[in-house]
Amino acid sequence: MKARFWVWFALVAGLAVFGCSDDDDNGSGPDDNNEPEGEGVWVDEEAGGGFYARLDATAYDAYAYLSLADGEVVTVNDPMNDNGWDLAFSRYNGKLNGGISGSAEVVGVDLDDIGHQHAMDYYALNEVPDVAEDEWEADAYDLMVGDNWYNYNPQTHEFSVNNNIFVLNDTDGNYAKFRFPTLEGGGMGNMGTITIEYVYNADGSNDLNGDPVSVELDGSDGEIYFSFSEGGEVEVADRMSSTAWDLYITGFDVYTNGGVSGPGDCAVYPMYQDEDDFEAVTMAPEGAPFFSDAVQSVFIGSVNETGSAWYEYNPQVHELVSKGHVYVIKATDDKHYKLEITNYYKEVDGEADAGWVTMRYAALD
């Protein structure tokens, strides 16, 4: 089961432990042995030179940041240009200061992914493990449409459509179902001519029973911005500040205007997982998990693939439980740190409150 689908299931189940939390003081620093009341860093008394850190990641729309190098919870206003942080969490979503998330080139590896002998034994790992260059992970886009609309043949270098169906909630709060039925002249470095077929409902209801519209899109210049409400291509100067577009197609990847890809509220449901008949999709699925483009990191896998999420969802007790995987992070100070996420909850007013990500970590060199 895909990682974020499980979290959506937990949320709609009405979990009491996913409530809001009170603000707490930052607590003690790495030179104190006492565990702080709120977020903060404290000494791991079981291991010399090791620490625990707790992040107040209870907000859905903001990250809490940690500097492994400095041993501090830090305030970050411009994460893309601030090298003073190494990792951050917003609820269950984790990211590193590298790749699409930052400029510090921080990378990590889940030792379970590479079959390391200490993948589940944090205290047994005492030196930097042998990790191949291509096994280090930097943050990347997890696109909800992405490359899931076509097939690529590496032998012939040919692209062909797969007719996968998507349902999108656009920047105006209206629904559209769409697919890409044809791709002509597409090849390496040239997207050719793409046809999009869609039904768009501008009245805000989830009725998608109208007559489909087909529009040819010229991808020869490498970029296409498309708006369902406008019924065609639109001009966009800066996609990260514009809500005039719904789909951005470049390099055969389709971005949607929401999450990490744009300032809009676009979210997508992969309808092709349920239905392959375009005409049979007459309604936007009520209660289905619609996702915006997000970050795929060493902590969180892709919603479109089986990812290496740091947690499992326990449907019996309705909780996220850490898998206990050991990570190695190559941090901003060029040192390697071992790290394990130990808990997602903290007691607030006698109840378990979600989003308090606790981890232990220690330098390996």
Description of the molecule:
- This protein is mainly β.
- The protein has 2 domains: 3-139 and 296-363, no CATH class; 144-292, no CATH class.
- The chain is 3% helix and 35% strand.
- The chain is built from 1 helix and 25 strands.
- It has one helix at 3-12, and strands at residues 40-43, 50-56, 64-67, 72-74, 87-90, 93-96, 107-110, 140-142, 150-153, 158-161, 166-169, 175-184, 193-201, 213-218, 224-227, 232-233, 247-250, 253-256, 267-269, 294-296, 311-314, 319-322, 326-330, 336-348, 351-363.
- Strands 1-2-25-24-23-7 form a 6-stranded antiparallel beta sheet, with no helix packed on it. Strands 14-13-12-11-19 form a 5-stranded antiparallel beta sheet, with no helix packed on it.
- The longest helix is centred in the first third of the chain and has 10 residues, at 3-12.
- The radius of gyration is 22 Å and the shape is elongated.
